[in-house]
Amino acid sequence: MTSNSKRVLATAALAGMLALGFAGGQAWTAVAAAARGETVTPLTAQKLANIPGKTLTALTVDYAPGGASPAHHHAASATVFAYVVSGAIRSQVNGGPTAVFQAGQFWIEPPGSAHGVSENASTTEPAKLVAIAVGDDGATLTTFDK
User: Which residues form the Cupin type-2 domain (predicted)?
Assistant: First the structure.
């Protein structure tokens, strides 16, 4: 990857984190996330030229053994696609059954979903997922529940 590509990716990631807010509502801080055993890393945010008014935002979530994200919900305009890169992730969406997804598996969260459980299924191994959301330009994509 060229240094210009890295610069563009870093700029897009920062724009995604600040403008599109995968973490809104209740205050999200790196310190609080680390205490829960999660590390969120923005990857990119790109307006979709063929779908005016929509932006694709991508990030990774790394979970330490036993790590978890707080309960949250997604914007009414955003569909979220989650792909497990490594380890196993326990997830529960919209009050449905809790499921464990292994590396290579994915799930889709429809617009406005409530994500009650998102955590590492293991207390001994780390886990990682990629989350990709397509939502309205400028939308706060994730709001943590109180």
Answer: 60-132
